[in-house]
Amino acid sequence: MITSRAAGSVGGVSTALGSPTLEDTYAQAVPDLVVPWAAAPARDPQVVVLDEELAAELGLDPDALRTSGLLVGQVPEGVRTVAQGYAGHQFGMYQPRLGDGRAVLLGELVAPDGTRHDLHLKGSGRTPFARGGDGRAALGPMLREYAMGAAMHALGVPTSRGLAVSTTGEQVPRDTGLLPGAILARVASSHLRVGTFQYAAHQDPSPVRVLADHAIARHYPHAAESDEPYLELYRSVVAAQASLVAQWMLVGFVHGVMNTDNTTISGETIDYGPCAFIDGYDPTTVFSSIDHAGRYAFGNQPMIVRWNLARLGECLLPLIDSDSDTAIEKATAVVQSFTETYDEHFAAGMAAKIGLAEPDYPLIADLLTLLGTERTDWTTFFRGLGNGTARDLFVDREAVDAWVARRDALTDPAAVAAMDRVNPVYIPRNHLVDAALGAAEAGDLAPFHELLDVVRRPYDERPGLERWTEPGTGPFVTYCGT
Ligand code: AMP
Ligand code: MG
After folding, report:
1. Mean pLDDT over residues 45-65, rounded?
2. Measured between alpha carbons, how far is 79 from 77 in angstroms, rounded to an integer?
3. Beta-carbon count within 10 A of 80 CB
4. Average pLDDT of 328-354?
5. Closest ligand to 133 CA?
6. Is the CB of residue 271 below 6 angstroms from any atom belonging to ligand 1?
7. Quick one: how far is CA 388 from the chain centroid?
8. CA-wise closest residue to 131 among 102, 104, 106
């Protein structure tokens, strides 16, 4: 049951689901960047999956959550939910008004550990940002986002996380026919995007300074102490994103739609659409059916993030320095630091994956060439390197043996001992994800629960899960399928 907060209490509205309250500091800070909006009532809401561990981290009682209606947008009286505005470059083309077309921000929860999280719904009906869309979401794609977020979290990659997926009792029309409608309740440290800054920067008068102050307070409080807080904010976002995309590359993750509106200020992965993990190593890998030119191919991701961050820099210029030439010079130096920071993270991560204490750049570069030559399975290779089976994956044994001999001469015992904790056995293999989602849409949730079980413990090898270590056959395509 949900009750509204007692009159006079501070800090937002009680959800009566535990200690946290729903706050709205974002909506209060930048009212021009949001539209007050409520989720459309769901006809017959049913919770399909709920992440009880995440609920507990947030201080929410899972049982109360299941029955409260909060997961489909029934909020206590007094809670002001909003649709957030944002702009964005989609495949390089600027769109001045995107925004939450089918989503609402229920509010911010302060967890028992003091951290602040957005609680947000996707698929909760049309909003003033809906453009031509129906405001709905289908069950398969919402379960996909839920599972992929769980997988990335378990792999230690910063990410938004699905709290729950509920069906609405309605059918939504999509290309493939009528599909069960669903709402994803998700949690992120915020939903601030590069596109949010683009949206703010194009308004007159522009709330970009207030937005930047909110971002600093929320994500990078140390920047407030700097002589140049906005430059420091920019530096922090660049560093966080360089680290994030390096982690994507290390686990073989292809986001698929790296538009500026899908690039966060926090440095968390967000908006899982046609994303997928690579099997064989190939930097040109593209899964998304809409990415015809391969703009968001696996190997392009670092460069694309850097490009997106340059767009953020443009929004911050007036805050960085009143002299525009000076501002450009300072911002340029920051965005240029991306490449070095990224390289350091990637190389350090690769060193850990192959059992070295320090990166050896030529060894890493030669490994990538070797893996690319035969499109060796990325995940299986590193795990196999730890247990001596990696060479079995190659046709050209001489080449792999020569590389392994060079590597063996450089290994560090502690790093070798830690390899199985950085190299997953299991990733959400594409064909098995698709099969699980197909079964779920047809009413059988068992394969989806197996998927969750597998991806939540990616490092523990378990008997009976061998098929999760094998790539599917043939090329794999993901559909934006919203
Ligand atoms: P996405 O590809 O999910 O990042 O969405 C891009 C933009 O399209 C965002 O502004 C979404 O809110 C909007 N959008 C996507 N699907 C729908 C839909 N079914 N109804 C309304 N807006 C949508
Ligand atoms: Mg998006």
Report:
1. 97
2. 6
3. 17
4. 98
5. 1
6. yes
7. 33
8. 102
240-284 tens-digit pLDDT: 999 999 999 999 999 999 999 999 999 999 999 999 999 999 999
Alpha helical stretches, state H, 101-167: 139-154
261 tagged catalytic: yes
Kindly state if the Cβ of 290 falls inside 6 Å of ligand 1. Answer: no
Please indicate whether residue 130, judged by its CB atom, sits closer than 6 Å to ligand 1.
Answer: yes
Cα separation, 219 vs 26, in Å, equals: 13
Q: For residue 473, what pLDDT is reported?
A: 76
User: Which ligand is located closest to the Cα atom of residue 96?
Assistant: 1
Which residue is associated with the tokens 């807080």? Answer: 229
- Best CA proximity match to 280, nearest among 152, 375, 149: 375
Residue 210 has pLDDT above 80, yes or no: yes
The span from the CA of 251 to the CA of 167, in Å, is: 31
**What is the distance between the alpha carbons of residues 143 and 434, in angstroms, rounded to a whole number?**
11
Q: 479 falls in which pLDDT band (50, 70, 90)?
A: confident
Task: Write the DSSP assignment of 360-382 as a string of letters.
Answer: -HHHHHHHHHHHHHHT-BHHHHH
Per the CB < 8 A criterion, the answer to whether 79 and 11 are in contact is no
Q: What is the pLDDT of residue 14?
A: 53
Mean pLDDT of the chain: 94
Q: Which amino acid appears at position 357 of this protein?
A: A
- What are φ and ψ of residue 159, in 5° steps? -160, 155
Question: Comparing C-alpha atoms, which of 324, 28, 326, 30 is closest to residue 205?
Answer: 30
Average pLDDT over residues 274-302: 96
Choose among 91, 101, 95, 419: nearest CA to 286: 91
Residue 4 scores a pLDDT above 70: no
- Our CA angle for 482, 296, 154, nearest 5°, is 70
Q: For residue 282, give every residue at least 6 positions away whose Cβ sits within 8 Å of its Cβ, in sequence order, or none.
A: 298, 372, 375
Ligand nearest to the CA of 141: 1
Provide the pLDDT for residue 10: 34
Structure tokens at 362: 């030529």
Would the CB of 101 count as within 6 Å of ligand 1?
A: yes
Report the 10 Å Cβ neighbour count for 475.
Answer: 8
| Residue to mutate (ligand 1; options 89, 98, 262, 263; most atoms within 8 A of CB) | 98
**pTM greater than the 0.85 cutoff:** yes
Asked whether the beta carbons of 215 and 192 are under 8 A apart, the reply is yes
Distance CA 38, CA 378 (A): 44
Per cent of the chain over pLDDT 70 is: 95
User: Which residues have CB atoms below 5 A from the ion given as ligand 2?
Assistant: 262, 271
Is 273 near ligand 1, meaning CB less than 6 Å away? yes
Measured between alpha carbons, how far is 26 from 179 in angstroms, rounded to an integer? 34
Catalytic residue among 51, 261, 291, 360: 261
Write down the pLDDT at residue 239.
98
H helix or E strand, kind and range, residue 167: strand 161-174
